[in-house]
Structures are given as structure tokens and as C-alpha cells.
Amino acid sequence: MTRHVTDIDDLSTDDLADVLARAEDLKERVARGKPHPELGGASLAMIFEKPSTRTRISFETGMTQLGGHALFLGPNDIQLGHGEPIKDTARVLSRYVDGVMARMFDHGDVTELAEYATVPVVNGLTDDAHPCQTLADLLTIRERFGGFDASVAWVGDGNNVCQSFVKGAAMAGLDLTVATPAGYEPDDATLDRAAELGGAPAVTNDPEAAVADADVVYTDVWVSMGQEDERAEKLAAFDGFQVTTDLLGDRTLMHCLPAHRGEEVTDAVLESDNAAVWDQAENRLHAQKGLLTFLM
Ligand code: CP
Ligand code: NVA
């Protein structure tokens, strides 16, 4: 049966453990310079409605390292967005390629791709979810803490990256507190699903309270891609949620990147030795290779 990952909880807890184990093994093989062409001859179509540095480059180089090939399909490269329906795109791509990765605005567009594709579809970020980021985040936490016996405080917007992390944290057994301004919490469906998966996070509007017992502080941009019109309103709402040297203390900083220095995080914090963000970015590569070998 074709498996899709439109969000992290399309994987079972056992699947998640399998993907992370594959990621660690592949990372070690990269470090030892051992070739690993496990997807030799395979092609991955990569649909991008939004810009990307990490997702695009990690998937493309990941496929190359696995002996396969990736096709970058931006908004002006294919008929999708120019009149061809998602379901037709899904069926046609499935006749050519072995997997599809899609970064789209509307989460429903990625689930529709998955509904009609006969090859695995992976969500590379929607307005609601970012499961590939969660895989890399869990890998990074496990490397740093030797497991998931760690406490994480999310400080910032409760949208896509946060929502997938909330579910992934529940699956992994991380202790999580989410601090957002009022009105920017993760949605109810995410919190209900996290409860089913192992435990909903504590949710607060107080960043200082959230970080009090935390080992890790995780933040994300205040103005996500596609929200440019809400910029003034969001900057005002997030006043007081910046991760500063004072708020971080000696805790580990996580950020999915790109970072907007001077908004959600200060330059000093990002440049400090507490920042795990470069490991997180690298781990996108290894985590997604683990996922691709699991799915394809
Ligand atoms: N974190 C992340 O997905 O980065 P990009 O937008 O650069 O892909
Ligand atoms: N929340 C951010 C994440 C970018 C990887 C956005 O959606 O733009």
C-alpha cells in the first residue's frame, strides 16, 4: 500500500522510530564517506508554491546521495496553478516518478495530492504542518539529550512548525509547553490529536513561565510565508515573545530557520553556542533520507 506523510502522525510510533533509526544510520554512512545508493534510479518530484532553502536543497541533495534524482518544480514550471487540477497533476506525476514532495499553502492541497497519487506524497510545509521539520527536530533532540527525556518550551507562533512539533513531541514522549500570544495557539484539532498520541502540551500565553523548567527553547518566525499582509498586526501581537539572552539562559535554542533576527530571536542568541539550529538544518537531510528510504 502506498504510504503518504502529510503530517507527522501519518507515521505510527514504530514508523517514527524506524525513520529516525534509518536517519542515524544514513548520517553515519555520510560521515564515513560510504556510498549508499539505496534509491538508485528513483525520481522525486518536488512541487514548490513557496520559497525554500533547506527543504529544497536537502531533498535534492538527499536524492542524489541515495543514487536517485529530484526534479525542482516551481510555480511557473508546471501546469498546476495555471489551470491543471491537483488530482490530474497527482495522477500524471505518479506515472513518471517514484515519490512527490510538495510545499503548498493550503494543507488540503497536499492531502488531495496524496488522495490521487499512487506514489508516496510527503508534505514539505503547508500553512498547517511541517512534518519533515519535526523529524529533523526529534533527531536533533535525541542527539543532544541521548533520548527524549527532555523538556521543551515552544515560544512564538503556534502555526505549522509548532503544530507538527506538538504531535511529534507527543509521539516521542517529550515534555512540552507551548507559549503563544492569545489567539495564536495551536488549533484544537492539533491539541486533541496530541492528547490521543500520548499527551497534549501545556499551553500558556506567558513565555517566562513556559521556559522556567525547560532544557530547550524552540521558536519560529512571527510572519510566516503568505502572511506578509498581517505583518504589522503580528509584530504587535508577538511583542514580549522574542527569545533573548535573558529568556534563553543556558538552555538550548532551536529554530527551524529561516530566522528573522531582531524579531522572534536576537542575533546574539542565534550566534551563541546554545544554538542547535545548524544541527537541525543539517538533520533535515538525514531525516528526510531516512523517510524517503522508508516510503520509497
Ligand atoms: N525550515 C525550513 O523548512 O526551511 P526552508 O523554508 O528554507 O525550506
Ligand atoms: N512558519 C514558517 C516556517 C518556515 C519554514 C513559515 O510558514 O513561513
Automatic annotation (TrEMBL):
Catalyzed reaction equations: carbamoyl phosphate + L-ornithine = L-citrulline + phosphate + H(+)
One GO CC term, this protein: cytoplasm
Domain Aspartate/ornithine carbamoyltransferase carbamoyl-P binding: 3-143
One family name in Pfam for this protein: OTCace_N
SUPFAM superfamilies named in the record: Aspartate/ornithine carbamoyltransferase
Highest taxon in the source lineage: Archaea
GO molecular function: ornithine carbamoyltransferase activity
Residues that coordinate or bind L-ornithine: N160, D220, S224, M225
Localization, UniProt: Cytoplasm
Record's protein name: Ornithine carbamoyltransferase
Organism of origin: Halosegnis marinus
